[in-house]
Amino acid sequence: MHGRGQEILLTAHECASRIGLSIRALRLYEKHGLISPRRTSKQWRLYGSDEVTRLNEIIALKSIGLSLRGISKLLRGQPTDLAQILALQRDALSDTRSRAERGLTVIEALQTKIRSGTSASVDDLMTLAKETNMAEPLKDTVAWRRYEQMRPRTEIAIDTALYDEYAGAYETADGTLSIVSHHDGGIFYRIVGQSDIEIFPESETEFFMKVLPVQITFERGQDQRVQHLRHHQNGFEDHAFKTDLDQVRNIEDAVQERIREQKPLPEGEIVLRDVIEEHARGEPDLDRMSPALAVLAEEQKDFIQAELEKAGKLKHLSFKGVSQVGLDIYDADFEHATIEWGFALTHRGRISHLYLRQTP
Questions:
Q1: Domain with 183 in it
Q2: Is residue 156 part of a domain?
Q3: Helical H runs in the chain?
Q4: 3-state SS, residue 180
Q5: Per-residue pLDDT reduced to its tens digit, 206-233
Q6: Could you tell me the CA-to-CA distances from 190 to 209, 311, 334 in Å, in that order?
Q7: Is there a domain that residue 157 lies in?
């Protein structure tokens, strides 16, 4: 071990043994351009905090099933972001823990069944195999997708004539509407009711936002015409198909009118009461939500349930107004707290946005 100023530098042997890798693996990662250890005057390799942080990143990506070639393609020339690595590792470990807990639940249920003299059915055995297959790689999990969506992107120049092909209105299966427009030399994307955000090309079909970790991919049908897009955000990918632009603009006008007049949704209070009751039981109705919101709701249900337990019984709901992006805002008075809730519905009645926060 060597000290240089305040930094501790490790030899290849020290680095490999302390992390649990082989020296051969260190050489392989160096060959792929993933790490660049410093050298002594005798050409001994030394590994500092930058190299060890990058090794953590490589290990995290390998744990979710990504090949070394894929890791090299993803990381080469990109700086290491420790916060992203920690988020990836945390999500991956949480996913593993959840899978283990589901597997244990299946095993305990089968043990109880067998002890009672009942034979395991084929369905029981199929479920057992699925839920106890811990060797299944974690690639394509929320953890991986979040990591990939958060990585730095590089803007390239493409033929802007393509922008007119991408422009139009799009709708997801749950009724979330978006509009892609081409003006002022750029291409812009917005969810209906919200503001335009410029998107920038990283390939002829893949675009990204600079202000948010969001990517948009345009896809063509067999006739080579643009038929749908994919919205990548928060570890989720949502598919939206091209639809009638005039109809979507009419829906958008109705949203803007509701914002101007501060007019609540007719069924809004009923929807919110149901949402609060479901979360208080720890059983949010995920089928009533857009897929992206359902992922977040499942992750946060325990936290929300704990907050509602502390708040006590719901006493009264008060409509406060409509936000600038079309969310209905309510104050919910509980026995021990007041909590502000905001939510939005798609034109098909699915909950697309939901938040809560304590008020003073």
A1: 162-255
A2: no
A3: 12-19, 23-31, 49-63, 68-75, 82-115, 122-131, 142-150, 162-166, 245-261, 268-281, 291-311
A4: strand
A5: 999 999 989 999 999 888 999 999 999 8
A6: 11, 36, 36
A7: no
